């Protein structure tokens, strides 16, 4: 297991401070963090909450693969990918990606790669709840 990779898929609240504490490294001058939050609208429709579901074994494996690819592809030292499962309210955090590198560009690029690839390949789905019903979105992979 790579000590420079931190993957979590959990039904607990994600903690940004814990993620920042883990990603820090004295050899790294750049830390890039992406924090996804639940917003209150989608396509001009009021969202009340989201429910995230995952095929956990495959999701964890794919998140690990993304982290390993990022370490090989970019000049980074550490990467963290955390995603929440279950019901989340407006303003809560479903995803945190953090990357540490000696220089900022690699951290920015790897962070964007990780969130974009996660959205495309990891079997995590969300259900959006509205006043008049709900709908599943992200029907991939």
Molecular structure report:
- The protein has 141 residues and is an alpha+beta fold.
- The chain has one domain (5-131): Aldehyde Oxidoreductase, domain 3.
- The protein is built from 3 helices and 10 strands.
- The chain has helices at residues 16-23, 56-73, 104-121; strands spanning 5-10, 30-36, 41-42, 45-46, 49-54, 78-84, 86-89, 95-101, 124-130, 133-137.
- The strands form 3 sheets. The chain has a 4-stranded mixed beta sheet with strand order 1-6-8-2, sandwiched between helices.
- Strand 3 and strand 4 (45-46) form a beta hairpin.
Q: What oligomeric state best describes the polypeptide chains here?
A: single chain
Shape-level CATH architecture: Alpha-Beta Complex
Number of structural domains:
1
Overall geometry comes to elongated
The whole-number mean of residue pLDDT values reads 95
Compact overview of the structure:
By secondary structure, the protein is α+β, with helices and mostly antiparallel strands. Helix content is about 30%, strand content about 40%.
Layout of helices and strands:
Elements: E1 5-10, H1 16-23, E2 30-36, E3 41-42, E4 45-46, E5 49-54, H2 56-73, E6 78-84, E7 86-89, E8 95-101, H3 104-121, E9 124-130, E10 133-137
Helix pairs in contact: 2-3
């Amino acid at each position: 297991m790579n000590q420079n990779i931190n993957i979590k898929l959990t039904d607990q609240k994600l903690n940004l401070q814990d993620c920042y504490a883990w990603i820090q490294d004295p050899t790294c001058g750049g830390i890039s963090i992406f924090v996804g939050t639940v917003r209150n609208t989608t396509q001009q429709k009021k969202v009340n909450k989201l429910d995230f579901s995952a095929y956990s074994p495959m999701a964890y494996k794919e998140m690990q693969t993304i982290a390993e690819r990022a370490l090989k592809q970019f000049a980074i030292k550490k990467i963290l990918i955390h995603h929440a499962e279950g019901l989340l309210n407006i303003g809560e955090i479903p995803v945190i990606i953090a990357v540490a590198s000696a220089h900022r560009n690699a951290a920015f690029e790897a962070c964007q790669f990780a969130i974009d690839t996660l959205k495309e390949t990891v079997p995590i789905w969300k259900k959006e709840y509205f006043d008049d019903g709900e709908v599943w979105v992200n029907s991939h992979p």
